[in-house]
Design a protein that fits this description.
- With 375 residues, the chain is mostly beta strands.
- The protein has a single domain, classed as Cathepsin D, subunit A, domain 1, CATH 2.40.70.
- The protein contains 2 helices and 20 strands.
- The strands form 4 sheets. Strands 1, 2, 3, 4, 5, 6, 7, 18, 19 and 20 form a 10-stranded antiparallel β-sheet that branches.
- A hairpin with a 6-residue loop joins strand 2 and strand 3.
- It is globular and about 65 Å long.
């Protein structure tokens, strides 16, 4: 549990700060700046005060060193809804384009380029590289930037399921804060019905608590599942390496699998499961999203992360399903209409900074982040 009082590097953010959106709720300019965010999940919110502290990140250079990175974040005091269950128990790492997010602070301080990548390992582990601007061999597509809704939004022009190609146009938020992809109609019905028509297996609900509509029993002969890919604006192909989730019994024996796409209302999200096996580059300088197939461990030959795949697990209960898209996505605009600050590239080339994370597909993919505090 993070406690500002126990950190020698912690500073409160006063109401007089230009970063304080809720100055009207302050009794005096010297008070700690409050925050209050309502999320898409029903009755889910977080409120508390803004604080400043430091992250300790490892530079990816010839001589690796620890970099002290000052950041600002919300120290939660009152949580409601999904936060009272198993959603994001360790907190949320802000990676958005507003001025208070971690990448924005790193770029404004000249510690890293205004870009970062997330590598999603198929075993549930991965890493963030702040300052990673991608490579020449990556696929990419333009980001759709809306001031009133500043998420990482891209346009999809085609869906391919097995041997069927579906021409369609819709926008989707690429959200690392969501475990499973969520689509609204007509996209949801188009992709799920096409998948179902090409699977030669017995459809079975398996468990009424699962938030997935298309589940199947494992057959003795094994099943061939159709591949899924998305074509983004500009023609780049976004491959979905892991569209299903395996359901096991108490002894971890496979009993079935589900197409891990949830039906939503009015919002489309590419979740962590669609990004498995990829390195995804969020380039905020060029305003593009890039991706390529990648082995997360290629970046660290002396990996301190466990390399044994995590056993399959039952996905979240309904309260973390369709109504719990993502704690990261707040309702409407950012608090009090915060504007998007697009930072310009720095003249120098700052080093890439690394942060390791671990996740399980049975929980909402909010990065388990330890704020290192001086004793």
């Amino acid at each position: 549990m993070y406690s500002p009082e126990k950190s020698t590097t912690s500073r409160k953010v006063p109401c007089s700060s230009s970063f304080c959106d809720l100055q009207g709720a302050c009794r005096s300019k010297s008070n700690s700046c409050p925050y209050n965010i309502q999320y898409l999940s029903d009755n889910t919110s977080s409120s508390g005060v803004l604080v400043e502290d430091v992250l300790y990140l490892t530079s990816e250079s010839a001589q690796s060193k620890v970099v002290t990175a000052p950041i600002m974040f919300g120290c939660g005091q009152v949580q409601t809804g999904s936060f009272l269950g198993s959603a994001a128990p360790n907190g949320l790492l802000g990676l958005g384009m507003d001025s208070k997010s971690v990448p924005s602070f790193l770029a404004s301080k000249g510690l890293a380029s205004n870009s970062f990548s997330m590598c999603f390992g198929e075993d549930g582990h991965g890493r963030i590289n702040f300052g990673d601007t991608g490579s020449s061999d990556q696929q990419e597509t333009p980001l759709n930037i809306y001031r009133e809704n500043p998420y990482y939004n891209i346009s999809i022009t085609r869906i391919t399921v097995g041997g069927k190609s579906i021409n369609t146009e819709f926008s989707v938020i690429v959200d690392s804060g969501t475990s499973f992809t969520a689509l609204s109609d007509p996209m949801y019905t188009q992709i799920t019905s096409s998948f179902d028509a090409q699977v030669h297996a017995s459809r079975n609900q398996l468990d009424s608590s699962l938030p997935f509509e298309y589940c199947y029993s494992v057959s003795a002969n094994g099943d061939v599942q159709p591949n899924i890919s998305l074509t983004a604006k500009g023609g780049s192909i976004f491959p979905v390496n892991d569209p299903v989730i395996t359901i096991t019994d108490n002894s971890f024996n496979p009993i079935g699998y589900c197409l891990a796409i949830m039906k939503s209302e009015g919002v489309n999200l590419i979740g962590e499961n669609f990004m498995s096996g990829l390195k995804v580059i969020f380039d905020r300088e060029r305003m593009v999203l890039g991706w390529k197939k990648f082995n997360c461990y290629n970046l660290d030959k002396s990996s301190r992360l466990p390399v044994n795949p995590s056993p399959s697990a039952v996905p979240p209960k309904p309260e973390l399903g369709p109504s719990g898209y993502t704690p990261e996505a707040a309702k409407g605009a950012l608090p009090n209409g915060t504007q998007v600050n697009v930072l310009q590239p720095s003249a120098s080339s700052p080093p890439q900074l690394q942060l390791h994370f671990s996740c399980r597909k049975s929980v909402v993919f909010a990065i388990a982040l330890l704020f290192l505090v001086a004793a």
